[in-house]
Design brief:
- By secondary structure, the protein is mainly alpha-helical.
- The chain has a single domain (about 5-120), classed as de novo design (two linked rop proteins), CATH 1.20.1440.60.
- The protein has helices at about 10-25, 35-60, 65-90, 95-115.
- Helix 1 runs antiparallel to helix 2, helix 1 (about 10-25) runs antiparallel to helix 4 and helix 2 (about 35-60) packs antiparallel against helix 3 (about 65-90).
- The protein is elongated and about 45 Å long.
Length: about 120
């Protein structure tokens, strides 16, 4: 059995980090007039999934705080999905890319939800 010693060992963190990096690369091609709206927002929310997960890991001693930070990570993942939908509607990304990234975030949200529901396995 794999022992998780660091938040970077969590599979959900790895998936969220890779998804955020994909969004970073993709958003480089968005129009410059979107810099202070869509680009900044989608990059911030996708990165916040990871940062909230990292914070939750350090708060495992306090179950309620751990769960709250996991919930925050799920909210940021949902916000990222919303920005992806705007990106698709504005024709900055195609349908396949939207569907792939949206599916990745659905999986991330499901994994985070599992962590929240099973917080006793993570908290001490």
């Amino acid at each position: 059995m794999l022992t998780i010693k660091h938040f970077r060992d969590l599979e959900v963190y790895k998936k969220a980090f890779m998804a955020a990096m994909k969004i970073y690369e993709i958003s480089k091609g968005f129009p410059k007039d979107e810099t202070y709206s869509l680009i900044n927002q989608i990059r911030r929310s996708s990165r916040s999934v990871c940062s909230n997960l990292a914070e939750s890991w350090r708060k495992r001693r306090y179950k309620a705080v751990f769960r709250n930070k996991i919930t925050d990570a799920m909210q940021e993942a949902s916000e990222t999905q919303s920005w992806l939908e705007f990106s698709f509607a504005c024709k900055y990304i195609n349908k396949d890319l939207f569907n792939n990234l949206d599916s990745e975030y659905e999986e991330i949200i499901a994994m985070l939800n599992g962590m929240e529901k099973n917080s006793d396995k993570f908290c001490f």
